[in-house]
Specification:
Number of helices: 3
Number of domains: 2
Order of helices and strands: HHH
Distance between the termini: 37 Å
Structural class: mainly alpha
Amino acid sequence: MRTQIALKPEQHAGVKRKAAEMGVSMAEYLRRLIERDLASPGPRGVISDIFALGRSGGSDIAAEGKGAVADAVEDDWIRRTR
C-alpha cells in the first residue's frame, strides 16, 4: 500500500542520510522504523501513579515526592539524550 507523508527539509535530509548509511531505500528505512515502533511495548502506566510512593511520613522522599520523582525522570532523560 502506498502512503504519502510530508517531511520538513531537515527530516527528509536526515532520513535520506540514515537510509544511505544503512544501504537501504528511504521507504525501507521508514518501514523498519515503523515496524520497530509497533513491536515495542507502549507505556505501562502514568508517571503520576508513582508520586504517592514512599509517603511514609519520615523520609525526604515522603516530603519531596513529586520533586524527587521529577528529578529522577529528568536525569534519566538527560542521560539517554546525550
